[in-house]
Amino acid sequence: MRKLLFYYIIFLTFSSCNFFQPKSTIIRIKGSDTMFEFTEMLAREYMKNNPSVAIYVYGGGSKEGIRALAKKEVDIAMASRLLTPEEIKVLAEDNQTIGVSYLIAKDAISIFINPANSIKNFSINDLKKIFTCKINNWKELGGEDHEIKLYIRNPNSGTYFYFQQIVLNGEKYCLSAISETTTNKLIEQIEKDKYAIGYGGIGFVGKIEHAKIEGIEPTEENVRNDLYPLSRYLYFYTLKNPDGEVKRFIDWVLSRSVQSLIKKTGYVPIWNVTF
What we know:
Layout: H1 2-20, E1 25-31, H2 33-49, E2 53-58, H3 62-70, E3 76-79, H4 85-95, E4 100-113, E5 121-122, H5 124-131, E6 149-153, H6 158-166, E7 178-180, H7 183-192, E8 196-201, E9 209-210, E10 212-213, H8 220-224, E11 231-238, H9 244-254, H10 256-264, E12 268-269
Parallel strand pairs: 1-2, 1-3, 5-10, 6-7, 6-8
Antiparallel strand pairs: 3-11, 4-8, 4-9, 4-11, 4-12
């Protein structure tokens, strides 16, 4: 009887702890590969101070994040570009809303080259010709007599779309360009190949160089002041004005103190913050 009483007390203790323990609020975020790492970092920081909240962050590209938001599979979509007219139409038809956008950080598309490459500066016109196969050899730019190896993001990527619209003026990418699923994989290829070139967000690092465009470096100051030609904003999208924990999380991300965390990841915060 004593043993039974003991086990019964233990059962009640654990049952009552489990019963009164607050249920976790789940926030699901999906989208931009460019934004994945720093959003995951922000999610970890938020959950440290809010243990009842579980935040799941998934990549897949801006297009995939917006699709998931339209289907109500996620609470927040990450995107490194504005919504397309087609995406706005789908949101309006399926959800009777065109969504709500939040400027989370400022970014720029950086041109990645191997450090051994002698060409360190490109014009926008150079880049357009390179990525549409009108320039195929580094010697045409004053470099070595060797074929240019092109690496690009996949079509679900907001960076892919932005680069195509802004740099290529809507023209198709060169058919010989190799598409990588993530920016990190793209960087790995450029690290190994002296004659490779690719692009991605300025927050990405590796054994690569970030080339100048029109003689301007992709630095925080140049991006903040819109001097660097390929500066852009990074967005969170929700279906409607959020409430509850989703609103608290977004408000927290936009606070000055948290924007300094974004700065540490190599991106440009919305606020002019210091460490």
